[in-house]
What we know:
This protein is mainly alpha-helical. The chain has helices at residues 3-15, 21-27, 31-37, 40-44, 46-56, 65-73.
Amino acid sequence: MRPDIKAGLDRYRDEHISTGGFLRRVLENDLFGAFAKADEGNQQDMLSIIQYIYNELPTVCYGSPEQVKEWLERK
């Protein structure tokens, strides 16, 4: 996983800062949308990105558009 992707996920987790379109779709569990927004490197890194989210982020902050929206509103 690229350092900028990890940093974006960490900011999202720690500071409730919105991510870019690709990560937003990953967090919202929108597989088709995520792959459509991903560049080639992120497409190849998708498994490690998902593993990082699963292992390092609270389960309440990902999984659906509603969960992501609620997490971002908790600032």
